[in-house]
Amino acid sequence: MRFEVRHSGFSDFAEFLAYAEGATVAPAVIYVFLLTSLKDERTGHYRVGGFDFETCGRELGRFAYLAHILRDVARDMRVDGTGLVYLSREDLRRHDLNDEALRGLIEKGAGDDRWRTLVEDICGRAHAMEAHGTRMAEAQYGRMPPDCAFILSLIIRIYSDLLRRIEAAPDQVLRGDPIPNTPEKAVLVSVARRTGYPHSRILGKGGVPSEALGR
Fold first, then answer.
1. Which of 121, 184, 189, 215 lies at 20 to 30 Å from 1 by C-alpha?
2. Which tens digit of pLDDT belongs to each residue from 52-62?
3. Residues 6+ apart with CB under 8 A from 88
């Protein structure tokens, strides 16, 4: 919050990652700990054993946050006309863009090769974080309660799908078009199978998808 009051953007990606330690890493690490920890019946304390939940939470939090800032780039930059620009000036410059040029693309609702290669660049970094964090999370699923493994896997899948939709249609976010990220029933079933979560919680009688999940 202090950074947002004093700055309108980031000089480079390293400065953005430092900001992300508070904006996304801290809550993500806590959330991963809550989902992966098990209660020690002797002491009543919750522990994760040897699992590096901090690195897992950091990688997953950063990857999801990059999907967020790409999805919301038009809305963020329209805040009073001078909203916080989450894409660093160095990254914009590397792709022959600046704040003014990016605002111009948003006003037109159409990008060009500069914007599309920038999105490809950012998505590439996010995918590396996603892959590392996902591998770490998947290694824990067998040690976690099935409902906790299910929800962590589902959240990763939702942000993974969001990032891929943005990557496939980068101009969509310039127009501020909604990008649906509600998982299909088939996705829910797939995640349940992977994590051992009971299918009966997802499917109704006779294997019909539960309307509760649809809502």
1. 121
2. 999 999 999 99
3. 9, 10, 11, 12, 13, 15, 16
